[in-house]
Specification:
The termini are far apart. The longest helix is centred in the C-terminal third of the chain and has 15 residues. Strands 1-2-5-3-4 form a five-stranded mixed beta sheet, covered by helices on one side. The chain has a single domain, classed as Protein-Tyrosine Phosphatase, Chain A, CATH 3.90.190.10. By secondary structure, the chain is α/β, with parallel strands linked by helices. The protein has eleven helices and five strands; from the N terminus they run H-H-E-E-H-E-H-E-H-H-E-H-H-H-H-H.
C-alpha cells in the first residue's frame, strides 16, 4: 500500500496539541498489533519536553530525543527530527523550522514522487536526496489508503518494509542518511511524504542502533497514528522489517555493517553525537 497522504492543516494542529512528551498509553501497541483498527488512546505526558513540533504546513513532525538508550543515557533532544514533507510549509512554518536550528534535511521521497515539489527550507540548511522508492504522486482521482484509517495491517506494506531491508537502493539511501546523522554537530530532519513508513523505518533503525529498547522503538513508530487520528502504522510493519533483517543478515549488527555500510567507527560516532 502506498504511504498515506498528508492530511489537512487542522489535523496537523490536532497532532501538535496531543500532549507534552507524547507516548502511547498502555495497551496501545497491543491494539495496533492485533489489527483492531482502533485509533491509539490519547497520549499521556511522560517527559518534560515537547516531542511534537509545530511547523505550520508540515505534518507529523517530532523530536526523536529523550528515549532511554545504552549505558543509562538518553537520546539527545534537538538533534534529529522526523516528519512529513516540507514543500507546503507557510511563512510562519518556515520561521518555526528555522527555530529548530537545522543544518540538514534528508528527503526519502523518490524524484518522480516529489514531482518537483521541493522542500521550503530556511537559509543555510542543506538538502540531501536519499530516495527510497520512486512512485509518482497520486492525483485527485487516484485510489489511496482509506481516509479513516485501516482496520488491519496491509500485506503490501509489510512487503514494502521487507524491501527497505533487502532492496539495494533502500540500503544505500538509509546508510547515507545514517552517515550524515553521524557528522559532528549536525541537526537533522528526515522525512518522506507523511513521515510514517520510510521515515518510520529510518527512525527505528537509528533508535535501535542507539540501544533504545525495542518496545519504545515501536512506540515511536506508532505515534504517527496519533498524528493522523487514525491507524495507518501497525507494529506488524516493523515486525516485517526486523524479520527481514534477521532472515537476510542474521543480526541487526550485521545489517548495519553489511547492509547499510555502517561499521563500528560510524556506529560509535552516532552514539557519541546522539547520546546524552
Amino acid at each position: 500500500m502506498a504511504e498515506p497522504l498528508v492530511l489537512s492543516r487542522r489535523r496537523v494542529v490536532q497532532a501538535a496539541v496531543v500532549g507534552t512528551g507524547l507516548v502511547l498509553a498502555p495497551g496501545a501497541l497491543t491494539a495496533c498489533k492485533s489489527g483492531t483498527g482502533t485509533a491509539p488512546p490519547a497520549a499521556q505526558p511522560e517527559v518534560p519536553f515537547q516531542r511534537v513540533v509545530v511547523v505550520d504546513g508540515a505534518f507529523n513532525v517530532r523530536d526523536l530525543g529523550s528515549y532511554p538508550a545504552d549505558g543509562g543515557r538518553r537520546v539527545a533532544t534537538g538533534r534529529v527530527y522526523r516528519g512529513g514533507s516540507l514543500h507546503r510549509i507557510t511563512d510562519q512554518g518556515l520561521g518555526q523550522l528555522a527555530a529548530l536550528k537545522l543544518t540538514q534535511v534528508i528527503d526519502f521521497r523518490g524524484t518522480a514522487e516529489a514531482g518537483g515539489r521541493l522542500d521550503r527550507l530556511p537559509p543555510g540548511v542543506s538538502a540531501l536526496s536519499a530516495p527510497v522508492g520512486g512512485a509518482a504522486p497520486r492525483g485527485a482521482g487516484a485510489v489511496g489508503p482509506p481516509p479513516g484509517g485501516l482496520t488491519a495491517p496491509d500485506p503490501a506494506t509489510e512487503a514494502e518494509f521487507r524491501g527497505y531491508v533487502t532492496a539495494s537502493e533502500a540500503r544505500q539511501s538509509f546508510g547515507t542518511a545514517l552517515r550524515h546523522v553521524a557528522s559532528s554537530g549536525r541537526v537533522t530532519l528526515w522525512h518522506c511524504n507523511s513521515g510514517t513508513y520510510r521515515t518510520g523505518w529510518a527512525s527505528a533503525v537509528l533508535l535501535t542502533a542507539l540501544g533504545v529498547p525495542r518496545a519504545q522503538v515501536y512506540e515511536d513508530f506508532l505515534l504517527s497514528n496519533a498524528a493522523f487520528g487514525a491507524t495507518y502504522a501497525f507494529a506488524e510493519y516493523l515486525d516485517a522489517g526486523f524479520g527481514a533483517v534477521t532472515a537476510t543478515f542474521g543480526s541487526f549488527d550485521e545489517y548495519l555493517n553489511r547492509g547499510l555500510g555502517i561499521g563500528p567507527d560510524i556506529q560509535a560516532a552516532i552514539r557519541r553525537e546522539l547520546l546524552a
